[in-house]
## 1
Amino acid sequence: MEYLTIGHIVSVIIIIIGVVSIIIGIRRNKREFRDVYDEITAMSNHINTSIKESHVYLRHTGELTQAHKDDAGFDLHCTKDFSISRGYQKVIPTGVRIALPEGYEGQVRPRSGLAAKHKISVTNTPGTIDAGYRGEIKVIMINHSNKTINFKKGDRIAQLVINELPTVRALKVTDETFKELMNTSRSEGGFGSTGTK
């Protein structure tokens, strides 16, 4: 589904300005009229192309929803009733399959409401979905609370966020070359090496 964007509004404004300019051009001479018309047409085509390229269409099966049009992610729903005992995890089917465009990835993330109210999270957060994967999306849910949490069929259990990826290629270097790359302020410091304050 496409929504009215700033790009659409700008396009309409430019077309209105173009009509006014064309009328003025007609009063002057045919050559100016033709130049103005060609310029407005080119600008309009450029804006329409930009609008089309700003949309990524995610083809899918199953129930994939958004509560608000500007939400970062899509809601994933469970396809059956289930319970998770305290301290345990389960792999939950969603019935959703997606066809990501090349150059994109999907991330399965916890829902903030479930985490804050029930201490329910996604074990491997974020779960990565590669562009070439066409299987069903399943969520590895874990219960960090001290009680059993119950879910009903259709409940929203996680969210799916789509990200564009840069093109990255691995380049193997020698140990000597890598030593030159070690010269950073952090170097090998990790696992709390910067302290807590």
## 2
Amino acid sequence: MKRDLPAATAGKRQADEDTEPATTRPRLEPNVAGAGGDRGDDLQEESPTRRRRATDFEVTALMVKAAGGEDITKQVVDMDNSDHDKEMDTEHFMKEVVKDFWAKASDEQAAKDKELKSLWDHGVYEEGDRQQAKKDGYRIINTRWVITPRDGVTKARFVAKDFANFKSVNDVDFYASTPSLMAFRFGLVRAALLKHGLTVADFATAFLNAPLPEDARLAVEPPQEAGLPRDRVWLLRKSLYGLRGAPKHWQDHLANVLENKGFQRLRTDAAVYYYDGAGVPDNSLLLVIHVDDVVATGSRKVREEFFTDIQKEFNMKHITHIDEVGDCVKVLGRMVRKTAGGFAVETAPGYVEDMIKELGLETAKVTATPGVDDKIKEDRELDSYEHRLYRSIVGKALWLAADRVDLMFAAKRLSQKVSAPMLSDMVAAKRVVRYLKASPVAALLFEPGRVQTSW
């Protein structure tokens, strides 16, 4: 029998205005009678209104702290002992001190509710008895929430902490491939030759679609918001983010779905699928899949038919078609733009600017070449902070070099020193960034008969 969706609950405290013990409130200071510091004869008298207000302040502070927020008790005491010529009620206090906290808490709770509903809709789990699960050989895994603000929207993901006990990196059962950059470029060249367009889309909550293998006995600790007693656990029926095998389970499940629809999986690149369209090029379709991102190249009609059909199996989002000259979309961190003869792949806006800010080179002069043998008089090893900064810059330079042949040699030289860089290596890294400052945007053109760079 199907049970109702468990409702998320949030703890609340209710202050009793008349019976709150005085010992739970910060003590109110007595009157001070002037510059000499002599005490007055009488303590400051508390009115019922002031007492209720102080109690409300303290309960609010405790609620904020209990919910994981900043300890604002001192602010409460300071405000309670401040000049009350202007009436300061609880509503004003909430607006001034905890407005941002409650807004954030409300957004997080809404995001958690959405995630819990998604888990339920996908049939990820069944409730079970903890002791019985242990007897049946289930491995119970701890869990946590991951809260991420993104583009002004709070995202919540309920994840398993399966990597907490991960000790070996040699277990091939967890391997899931990602497409090579060459496969992505091949798709663009093929589309340009056939005068096709491309479509980019995301599989929503991809891992939650993948069923677990029959022999997998995994259970997780349910979130507090599920409202379950301690003796209950979630017995997993489908994959969950954070499981070691989740990427492989998803890739195998997607492969089965696509192969049942007539796609062939490339042996040379397991993340690329091809539908030959009965030998007619305009009816063919090439898919390059990077985890939950899919890039499809083919005629507009075939692409639209594919995404209409695949949405019967999975929820898709951000479906974007690139067919007209000037159309642009972000793909795997790069900007793909339709040109008259094919496609141009450019560096995503802001990437180079972030490197410049990271090294503090906003006002530095640009340079015409990415690297020379710069020598300094007193060389030294980088400290731990400089070393981390150097690794970060080198990693970003290597990523850019995959699309920019003008950076390949300089990025390779920098990467050779990443284990023990010297100050001279940092100077060389800064020179590369100053070169990028002069030419932050570069494009690879994929057009029939030529593949060339332009910057």
